[in-house]
Amino acid sequence: EAGVTQFPSHSVIEKGQTVTLRCDPISGHDNLYWYRRVMGKEIKFLLHFVKESKQDESGMPNNRFLAERTGGTYSTLKVQPAELEDSGVYFCASSQGLLTTDTQYFGPGTRLTVL
Amino acid sequence: AQKVTQAQTEISVVEKEDVTLDCVYETRDTTYYLFWYKQPPSGELVFLIRRNSFDEQNEISGRYSWNFQKSTSSFNFTITASQVVDSAVYFCALSEAVGNTGKLIFGQGTTLQVKP
């Protein structure tokens, strides 16, 4: 069974540009989470989808970040316009869904560098 | 407030040594879950263990063992007879069961280097 996949693995953009990150969860997993790790700090929660619905977006830094999960399958996270402080590694995770405390399985992350 | 502290930023050991990674957590909930993840150089976060707050039994899996002590709010991870392949960043995480969508609260991570 395929794990969580993320694309791209790396992205280097200039300040003010737009970037879209993609996450494909494990097949059949209803819960999808986005997290971010900035410069050696702790990994921080961004938001949580159950199927196509946003359940918790309390961790989204500001309105430059837009996450979608159309059809309840893959998810995208768009940053527009990107700022220097957005640099970091963006992780996606998925879990099966019956319990919110089910184990989350993570993807390899997308390393975003904003110059 | 929920918080996870991994006080050890970096640890370096020589192969075959035992090493313990500390994790201290804070939560007001009585029901919660604790996790350990490993991040090898390839970058993905690999799930190691999930433990609920009602199960204080220590767990052993091969060379890995976990010591959960509610009295000290700690969930420490020991690698016995460490190997070079154990070199990675290790994260401890907390998830509260009540009123929570399952988001994980992570510690800062401990970088473990095992030298041959």
Task: Describe the structure in brief.
The complex is a heterodimer of chains A (about 120) and B (about 120). Chain A is mostly beta strands and about 120 residues long.
Write the layout of secondary structure elements.
The complex is a heterodimer of chains A (115) and B (116).
Chain A: E1 5-7, E2 10-13, E3 19-24, E4 31-37, E5 43-50, E6 53-56, E7 65-68, E8 75-79, E9 88-95, E10 105-106, E11 110-114
Parallel strand pairs in A: 2-11
Antiparallel strand pairs in A: 1-3, 3-8, 4-5, 4-9, 5-6, 7-8, 9-10, 9-11
Chain B: E1 3-5, E2 10-14, E3 19-21, E4 24-26, E5 32-39, E6 46-52, E7 59-61, E8 64-69, E9 74-79, E10 88-96, E11 105-106, E12 110-115
Parallel strand pairs in B: 2-12
Antiparallel strand pairs in B: 1-4, 3-9, 5-6, 5-10, 7-8, 8-9, 10-11, 10-12
Structural class by SSE content of chain B: mainly beta
Low-pLDDT windows of residues of chain B: none
Oligomeric category: heterodimer
Strand content of chain A: over 45%
Q: Profile the largest sheet of chain A.
A: 7 strands, mixed
H/E element order of chain B: EEEEEEEEEEEE
Gyration radius from CA atoms of chain B, angstroms: 14 Å
Distance between the termini of chain A: 37 Å
Count of helical stretches of chain A? 0
Beta-strand fraction estimate of chain B:
over 45%
Q: What Rg of chain A is obtained from the alpha carbons, in whole angstroms?
A: 13 Å
Termini separation of chain B (Å)? 41 Å
Most extensive chain interface and residues per partner: A-B, 32 and 26 residues
DSSP helix fraction of chain B: under 10%
